[in-house]
Design goal:
By secondary structure, the protein is α+β, with helices and mostly antiparallel strands. It folds into two domains: 12-97, RNA polymerase, RBP11-like subunit (Gyrase A, domain 2); 101-134. It contains three helices and four strands, in the order E-H-E-E-H-E-H. It has helices spanning 36-45, 76-79, 103-136; strands spanning 17-30, 51-54, 57-60, 82-97. The protein has a two-stranded antiparallel ribbon with strand order 1-4. A two-stranded antiparallel sheet has the order 2-3.
Length: 154
Amino acid sequence: MDATKNIGTEHAKWSPVATAGYRMLPEVNLKTRVVGATAKRLVNLCPAKVFDIEDDVAVVARPRDCTVCRECIREPEWEERVELTRKRDLFIFSVESTGAMPAPTLVTEALSVLTGKCDLVLAALDAALKQWTTHDNGVDEENPDVEMDESEGS
């Protein structure tokens, strides 16, 4: 038996992630008070079971479960009562593992790799900025007494 250890950038067969995705956090608001039989109808309209009834009044009980399928506002009368939006700066991430590593470990490792790549980009930007400012003002910042020729700036 031969065993080979590698990473997913080499070939997909070494990737421990089955599926990964994200969606914006849904926001569900009731514009008006929905009571009685109308509240029961609203609860039944939603396939994700986002709404509940408390004291004969409809409430948004599980907004995170909303898939924004729009079933609750498909009829014109409901558009005046229910508002569906998405928060543009909040995301729900979903990561499914193949079993090689637990999903929380996958996310932690992925963030570690991303942090390392960001550090490399920042270091390259700092080096480019330093080179640009050195060549731009005609003075070598490490040796301020030495002026640079025009040919050294290009």
